Amino acid sequence: MAWDTERTRRLLLEAATAEFSAHGPDGARVDRIATQAGVNKERIYQYFGSKDALFDAVIAHELGEVTADVPIVGSGPDAIGEYAAALLERIVARPELGRLIAWEGLVRGTEIEGRDERWRHCRDKIAAVQAALPGVDDRQAGHLLLTIVTLTDGWRVFPQLGAMFVGDGARPEAQEERRRELRAVAVVLAERAVADAAAASAASGS
Amino acid sequence: MAWDTERTRRLLLEAATAEFSAHGPDGARVDRIATQAGVNKERIYQYFGSKDALFDAVIAHELGEVTADVPIVGSGPDAIGEYAAALLERIVARPELGRLIAWEGLVRGTEIEGRDERWRHCRDKIAAVQAALPGVDDRQAGHLLLTIVTLTDGWRVFPQLGAMFVGDGARPEAQEERRRELRAVAVVLAERAVADAAAASAASGS
DNA sequence: CGAAACTGCAACTGTCGAGTTGGATTTGAT
DNA sequence: ATCAAATCCAACTCGACAGTTGCAGTTTCG
């Protein structure tokens, strides 16, 4: 078997993703990550430098995946609804990123690593929303996306709220129900954004 | 000066609220809480038993306050909009509870302390929504509340998202803008819930 | 006054965990 | 075969932190 440094790196990243997602930057244990990956703890420092840097690497990696996994297809409010539903489905199947983002927000605030690249991602998404909803401006598209992403991430970050307000969120039926609800919410908000845009354009055009 | 055990307890609770909100159950330091409160660390164990128990006490205390602070006044979709706006205003002024709930959700999941009392709070809120929006059933009211609470809490829990999508969320104008947006979202969703309820009642009535 | 409870203070214990180090072993390339 | 890089292993350092203890001063209340 060849020296497969990419494999070692990948194993560490996968184990770290699970560990950081479950316990956060403070609760995560470097030893557990190493054991879980079946790799020596010392390797982590060779590859990533520090626990914090590993956390950043994990987030950057996960973020790259979700963007590719869940595109906005089609156009019109329904397309936004489908996007929201797909995003929720994805976060149920892979809750890691939502939780990681929450840990990051709580611990680091807005001072995040790799801000530039992430900002580019967000601009792209905003542009994609605008492509699907012609006439909607940056601000409206940004708020719409913020609302959708907050609701999807929040579903797995505040599980108590779901359990209290709509019954245990781990139940498959609850997942499905919430997915329908979120899709409907996204559609309604997208329709509103389009209507606002039309009204604004009519006002300025007259 | 008389022995004021309530004051000692209150000082500890206040300091613990700030510390846990800022750093979470894992990141919080018992020594810092004691120093901040101007009370000896040992007192914490006399009064609350353990770091974990102190965390639970902090959440229970904060939760009691918010329910009293932000009621639903009036009726109709606009009342729900006002409620959402007031909730966001409150979380900007006192971000502690939102962050505590997030820490709790991330670390403890749905297995929370004092579940019964909290469940009662939630039932009350759902009933209050139904009082403001006649005809709306439990499920719809629950989803509406879940959406509103997730969006308000998320605003301070995912500060990066706000910064990326709508500009730095710490700016006062951004706060105000998001507040208007959230109010509008809540109104739209409340209107939709009412319309759904009317349609359902018409269908069953015919 | 005197016992009992409350508090402050400071040092202590024991554990846990991040990061390091040195040496042995394996592997691919030349 | 040989060398350099990648890996494993195990023990180690060092600091941090939760929780404890003993003691001395203070307040309350009988």
**Strand-residue proportion of chain A:** under 5%
Structural class of chain A: mainly alpha
Q: Topology as H/E string of chain A?
A: HHHHHHHHHH
Most extensive interface between two protein chains, with residue counts: A-B, 54 and 55 residues
> Kindly state the mean pLDDT of chain A as a whole number?
91
Multimer state: homodimer
Form type of chain A? globular
The rounded Rg of chain A comes to 20 Å
**End-to-end distance of chain A, in Å?**
73 Å
Number of strands of chain A: 0
Q: Give a short account of the largest sheet of chain A.
A: none
What's the tally of helices of chain A?
A: 10
**Helicity of chain A, in percent?**
over 70%
Poorly predicted segments of chain A: none
Structural account:
Two copies of one chain form a homodimer. With 206 residues, the first copy, chain A, is mostly helical. Chain A is 82% helix and 0% strand. The model of chain A has no long low-confidence stretch (mean pLDDT 91). At the A-B interface, helix 1, helix 6, helix 7, helix 8 and helix 9 of A face helix 1, helix 6, helix 7, helix 8 and helix 9 of B. Chain A binds a DNA duplex (30 and 30 nucleotides) through residues 1-3, 5, 8, 29-31, 39-46, 50-51.
